[in-house]
Specification:
The complex is a heterodimer of chains A (310) and B (270). Helices cover 77% and strands 5% of the residues of chain A. With 310 residues, chain A is mainly alpha-helical. Chain A has one domain. Chain A has a two-stranded antiparallel ribbon with strand order 1-4. In chain A, strands 2-3 form a two-stranded antiparallel sheet. In chain A, α1 crosses α10 and α2 crosses α9. The longest helix of chain A is centred in the last third of the chain and has 29 residues. The termini of chain A are far apart. Chain B has a domain of 166 residues: Rossmann fold (3-Layer(aba) Sandwich), CATH 3.40.50. Chain B is 37% helix and 23% strand. In chain B, strands 6-7-8-3-9-10 form a 6-stranded mixed beta sheet. A 4-stranded antiparallel beta sheet of chain B has the order 2-1-4-5, with helices on one face. The mean pLDDT of chain B is 90. The chains are: A mainly alpha (310), B alpha/beta (270). At the A-B interface, α7 and α8 of A face α2 and α3 of B.
Chain lengths: 310, 270
């Protein structure tokens, strides 16, 4: 039971990454590699600030701001300096690797002995536990600490998802959606499409950095390499979610990204339990995303051919 | 309302692919006038419209709209003054957004986009009545994605969006060229109604000689980046497609003469 709750907690934390990917990949069709660097940046900023005695809430907020600035810079490099989207992301991701090491001072930084958001959650959970360490759920033991972390992350991710759903119904959010859909049209309606894309990437990377900040606080350390492969992870969550929900409405897509992340993390936990070598995890994820990208088109072509033949 | 002075634009300057698209255009459109621009392929008519819309900056010359010098304004800033309908029916709307979302974007053309809700309930009756006025039975489909509509329906909605807030200048870029004949006539009828109702200053580019003589108060013919004919008032009203065809034939013959003279000179001296 503890393993299941832990898998869902990480799934929820990485749902913020998936929401960020949804904005860059799906709304703006921008393959933003910055995410691999901004996830670690968020984790590094939050960890360093907590280690230096700052409150974890402030540290998490600062991580979001740092991620947003990174996303904004990628947006500016692409829109103002006219650098190819992929290259702009690669440049920022590469620069962030050094910046993250500078922020951390070394390649791995533990949070042991410092108060994190997870400790806050455990304290609140303690108010309900009546002093007990564990509780029984479906006949299995579950620690109050794990349950508290899960509930806190669930509330946070629900809040962020609701905020995003509201934002994309505002004038600014609608203009952002329309920019991804048809930049020529939004310019003709007085919207600066370059600014919209830059803001969108800032929002996306802010969410990714928040995901990194929470992940560091949950696992208790930050590592310079923790962002590697996260882009494909987020994309896999978005694709699974879209398949689950089968709707193109934005509110549904937001919820789909969260559900996709949860399901993906669950599948990973099951695969690891069945003996998958953790070293092969990123390979399996990459193959999965490739299949998810290619198969729908291939199946469609096959059906068309069969219909033509019949 | 629109003042164009000495407008020049050359694409790929200094390369073998150099194209002098606009060669010193001078044009003045007073408030409330409906001007039609006609010309053969490559005459510069669409380039002129794009220059006015701000799709690119001119090499030389100036542009004033509603008394403001907009020559160096980017496209999105000019949109405060300009409403625009594109040739491609898919260019003027966001296909994955609903009709209501598209209209809500148009309702703030050129205004600040803040954090207020885009589709506040108070806008709905206005949207319904304006969409109903198109006569296309779209009022029950406000929440449908606009990408599910036909080209004619999308073009009519683009026209509605371009004129939702009265623009100082309406630009129509061969906006019926990609439609089937029935939809084209329907969109032209709506265009005529909207322009007349709001007394809109309009610049319409067309390749249809029938539309060129039927619509508008004034007609200019372009050739090789210059205005070569300008018909207004009674002269414009008397025009028939055959007259335009004769003018095009004259131009074509002059071009052929130019080419044969150039060929002769080349053979003799080069």
């Amino acid at each position: 039971m503890t393993l299941l709750v832990a898998a869902f907690t990480v799934g929820l934390i990485l749902a913020l990454l998936a929401l960020g990917m949804l904005i860059s990949f799906r709304i703006f069709a921008f393959p933003d590699l910055t995410a691999e660097g901004s996830l670690t940046l968020g984790a590094a900023v939050a960890t360093v600030l907590i280690v230096h005695g700052q409150p974890p809430l402030l540290a998490t907020a600062a991580a979001c701001v740092a991620g947003s600035v990174a996303g904004m810079l990628t947006g500016l490099i692409h829109t103002r300096l006219k650098v190819n989207a992929l290259l702009a992301g690669i440049l920022m991701m590469t620069a962030l690797y050094s910046i993250n090491l500078d922020v951390m001072g070394r390649s791995n930084l533990p949070l042991t002995g410092h108060t994190t958001l997870m400790d806050y959650a455990a304290s609140i959970g303690g108010l309900f536990s009546g002093g007990a360490e564990t509780l029984q759920v479906l006949g299995r033991d579950l620690s109050w600490q794990d349950l508290s972390a899960f509930v806190m992350v669930l509330l946070l991710v629900s809040g962020v998802t609701a905020l995003l759903a509201w934002f994309f119904r505002t004038h600014l959010g609608t203009a952002m959606l329309a920019t991804g859909d048809n930049p020529q049209m939004v310019r003709a309606l007085g919207v600066d499409d370059k600014t919209m894309m830059t803001l969108g990437l800032a929002l996306s990377n802010g969410l990714v950095a928040m995901s990194g900040a929470l992940l560091a606080q949950y696992q208790g350390f930050v590592d310079a390499g923790m962002g590697i492969g996260m882009l494909v992870w987020g994309l896999a969550s978005v694709i699974i979610g879209e398949t689950l929900v089968g709707s193109r409405r934005l509110a549904h897509l937001l919820i789909a990204a969260v559900l996709g992340s949860l399901l993906f993390r669950l599948l990973v936990a099951i695969a690891l339990r069945w003996g998958l070598d953790p070293n092969d995890l990123k390979l399996v994820t990459a193959v999965f995303v490739l299949a998810a990208l290619v198969l729908p088109g291939a199946i469609g072509r096959l059906r068309t051919r069969q219909a033509g033949g019949g | 309302m629109l003042e164009i002075r000495g407008l020049h634009k050359t694409f790929n300057a200094g390369t073998p692919n150099e194209v002098r698209s606009l060669r010193g255009i001078d044009l003045s459109i007073p408030e409330g006038m409906f001007l039609v621009v006609i010309g053969s392929n490559g005459s510069g008519k669409s380039t002129l419209l794009n220059a006015v819309a701000g799709s690119f900056l001119p090499d030389k010359g100036s542009l004033h709209i509603a008394g403001r010098d907009v020559t160096r304004w980017p496209e999105h800033r000019r949109a405060r003054l300009v409403g625009r309908v594109f040739q491609n029916p898919f260019s003027g709307t966001a296909p994955n957004l609903s009709i209501a979302q598209n209209l809500s974007l148009a309702a703030r053309r050129g205004m600040r986009r803040g954090l207020g809700l885009a589709q506040g309930g108070e806008q709905r009756p206005d949207m319904l009545s304006r969409v109903r006025s198109l006569g296309m039975a779209l009022e029950d489909r406000l929440d449908n994605a606009i990408g599910s509509l036909s080209g004619g329906q999308r073009q009519a909605l683009t026209l509605l969006m371009a004129t939702w807030l009265k623009p100082s200048l309406l630009l129509l870029d061969e906006h019926t060229a990609a439609l089937d004949p029935r939809s084209a006539e329907q969109v032209m009828r709506i265009t005529q109604q909207v322009v007349a109702r709001d007394r809109l200053t309009t610049l319409m580019v067309t390749h249809s000689m029938q539309h060129a003589v039927t619509y508008g108060d004034r007609l200019v013919m372009m050739h090789r980046g210059q205005v070569i004919h300008d018909f207004e008032g009674a002269e414009k009203r008397r025009l028939r497609p055959a007259d335009l065809l004769a003018r095009f034939e004259e131009v074509r013959r002059a071009d052929l003469l130019d080419e044969s003279a150039a060929d002769l000179l080349r053979r003799r001296y080069v």
